[in-house]
Amino acid sequence: MSNPLTVLYRDEHLLAVHKPAGLLVHRSPIDKHETEFALQYARALNEGQHVYPVHRLDRPTSGVLVFARDSDTARTLGMALMAGEVTKTYLAMVRGWPPEHGEIDHPLREEPEDRRLKGEEQPVRDALTYYRTLATTEIPVEIEKYPSSRYAVVELNPKTGRKHQLRRHMKHINHPIIGDANHGRGRHNRYFAERFGQGRLMLAATRMAFQHPVSGKPLTISAAPEASFLEVLSLFPGFDVRDHSEK
Length: 247
Fold this sequence. Notes:
Blueprint lengths: L5 E5 L3 E6 L18 H8 L6 E2 L8 E7 L2 H12 L4 E9 L5 E5 L2 E2 L14 E2 L2 E12 L9 E10 L6 H8 L13 H11 L6 E9 L6 E5 L4 H6 L8 H5 L2
Parallel strand pairs: 4-11
Antiparallel strand pairs: 1-2, 2-4, 3-4, 5-10, 5-11, 6-9, 7-8, 9-10, 11-12
């Protein structure tokens, strides 16, 4: 079986890969039947040695995923994440045309991993996301009540790390991410699933920047979105995703 992960960066302390959409990072109580995880594939890339996931990337989200190759590095990078010293950049396609740029400062109630806990009251945490609109398009297709439908490509920079933060924040400002089954708009999701033959979440982690946990030197890890994402972005004439992912 071929390894679905693509190595983006590797040294004696870190392993960074591109995770495809649809692959869980590790075993979850929500998906007990699943047998394939990014963690096991990363371990295979690490000569069978243990790796430590240091951040979350949702199953339907593709993109940059960083593992530590030892516990000390995992601890140091984990502390940097909690301190807000790691910059994460995502690319998303959303319904409508958001403003040119803005911030979403909207607290979110925690979502437990275990569905059995959903009935219990969960704490509310501060959550902050910055966004920037990179491209817009309008297609002559009536999906809701208008004769045409508008979409945008946005760059998202979460400053906190709440579960499903970007998906919930974009829904909050009425520009849900295309393909989001839980927080999006069903008619738009179905249109794109039928048009392109796949209904993926249009959210990709394209860049992470931080100080190397051992050397202290600045490190930026980038990855262009995978082919299934780029195919949908063909709706935006003149938009070159490489201009975004390589900055």
